[in-house]
Structures
1.
Amino acid sequence: MNTDSELLNPEWRSPCPIASGLDILGDKWSLIIVRDLIEHSSRTYSEFASSPEGISTNILASRLKQLESLSIIERVNPDKPSRNNAFQLTQRGKALRPVLEELGKWSQIHLKEIHPTIVTII
């Protein structure tokens, strides 16, 4: 379990910008959360939990807390508890849109042969 200090001050593997980005977003779930917020503008904890990828509740809570602490997402209403609140992307989070679009395009082009059911969005 990450402490608040680890969330705000992650352990960086190196000064490389790609490695640093992956230190924050390279886990299995963070970009799925960002993807959902790009597609839906805002999502509640329950909506994230019902995503077809099947994120577990403890991982979801941890990722939301981490992304919020890094100002990638924010609560729509900061005074409401997390479970009853929606999250949205900050400007920092919205800046990830072209990254995800390019990753999606790459996946559609280069993974189609080994993942024939991949969805086409181009």
Note: Residues 33 and 48 are 7 Å apart (CA to CA).
2.
Amino acid sequence: MEKQAIKQLMYGGIKELMSDRKYYYSSGMGKNYSHFTDEGKLAVHEFVTEIAAYITEAENKELDNRAKEMVLRELKS
């Protein structure tokens, strides 16, 4: 999965959790009174833990591609 897709997945996933009062309390008094519920905190933790694997995979793939490009450039020189 590409970095941009992961970013969109993160934003969309957190936004969806925030739209459910079971997971997030949004106060009309502002951000100081809005918060994730205990269940929401657990859901965010589990969600981020799962996404971390995709982030690691994307970073490793990008690093591998850069290494291959460097080797090809050296071989062409």
Note: The beta strands are 24-25, 35-36.
3.
Amino acid sequence: MKRLVLSLLIALPSSAVVTVLLLFASGFAGGACHCMTPVSVLFPYGTFITMRTSWETTGFYTDILQFPLYGLVVAIANGWRKRLLAATVILGVHSIAAIGALTMYRWW
């Protein structure tokens, strides 16, 4: 239990910082190319929600909570093998979602 709490105390603040940094970086990169490609790659779930529905606030909350959820999943996994497996699954699912978001952005 103590290890889980320690893992969460490390994972959640660091993922919140990563989220803020990536939001700014994708915003600046999207402004440089006048496109939504960086945002679609880094935050595909929010892109799906924002582009396909009129729920912009829900898409923003999805963007904000995406990386803390990733950190939570990796922190909950016990042992380095399960954490590696969780990170690999997250990377695969995120890659598929990013490809889908980019494809949807190009069609839209």
Note: The two ends are 47 Å apart (CA to CA).
